[in-house]
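Ticket 4471: requesting a sanity check on a complex prediction with DAU. Repro inputs:
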Amino acid sequence: MHILITGGAGFIGSHVVRHFVNRYPDYRITNLDALTYAGNLENLRDIASKPNYRFVKADITDAGAIHELFEEGRFDGVIHLAAESHVDRSISNPTEFVMTNVVGTVNLLNAARAAWNGAYEGKLFYHISTDEVYGTLEQGTGIFTEETPYDPHSPYSASKASSDHFVRAYYDTYGLPAVISNCSNNYGSYQFPEKLIPLFINNIRNRKPLPVYGKGENVRDWLWVVDHASAIDVIYHNAKHGETYNIGGHNEWKNIDLIRLLCSIMDRKLGRKEGESAELITYVTDRAGHDLRYAIDSGKLQRELGWTPSLQFEEGLEKTVDWYLENPEWLERVTSGTYQHYYEEQYRGR
Ligand code: NAD
Ligand code: DAU
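Returned structure tokens:
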């Protein structure tokens, strides 16, 4: 079994690569990543020299390079995570999101279709998507199911919705074996410190302001990234082709409540007096088009494929804080940009 994982140098992708490389030593795993600002091969140091793993630097917007890789790789499956993933960046540069998330996904679909050439037995194109395609919910009522109509609001979620539609269109039109999952907000180790939790952990460490958008009333549904990786494994191996599965932890938090909990954990871990970190909270201008609330029903995945999350949020947040505090050099290399030289240092001359 040879699986191509795209975006494996990113936050979730690195957890998925680690999971598959360690759990399935008889599978070959190829990690394709363009190493944008969000790609960091240092995330995979612990498995980089495993015999069933290799890294290929390539850009999914480069159709020619992707076709060549599929010809050479003879992949049985694709787990597609490569994407521009940050909503704020999509507001300032939407076109980049269309290129990677839409055009890049279509390039992969075309390459898989050409390489498999109708011989679809044992093949699967698994597209990783987001709950943001469903739009937004009222405070305290409603939940996203697989039947919720798409209603994306940000350029990021519009690009992910579009890529989901293309994956379904290739299943319906060409019979390309495909599956999609839509997951809620992930948290955990190796997340780029532009996203809420690692950004705020880093700012608290450095006694910098914590920029809370609007009134901090927005609600997100949080899932430990390791549990997302295990869900992806279950779906990859057991899903019915053509289906969509929602993934989430039934774990809604209002931003301000989460931030106050995080501040209190950080005070305790850093030996600061209770309330010290919360003084860094600064209310700033709201994100444009800010979705009020996400909540996801992962009942189908639980009922049909037997997946359940392993960790309660409070425990997961403690573990996450511990990881960032125990790995200050990772945070420093990421925030200073030094991590971007790692690929040349490790792969020069290969
Ligand atoms: P990330 O930004 O941490 O990582 C994205 C990876 O994709 C990086 O390694 C980057 O180098 C790579 N990449 C970007 N453009 C590329 C291109 N043109 N060619 C090849 N590689 C490219 O993202 P993440 O948070 O790990 O998200 C991974 C996937 O999961 C995305 O598809 C995202 O939409 C989805 N998702 C994320 C979350 C979340 O909470 N972070 C939740 C649900 C779904
Ligand atoms: O729901 C899944 C999505 O979750 C994924 O598809 C995206 O890739 C991922 O980035 C994430 O999107 P969010 O926009 O929800 O995540 P972010 O960490 O950017 O923000 C979480 C909440 O915190 C959101 O309501 C905005 C708010 N926020 C965020 C930042 C970075 C702040 O108040 N201040 C901040 O500085």
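Notes from triage: Residues 87 and 192 are 13 Å apart (CA to CA). Leaving this open until the requester confirms.
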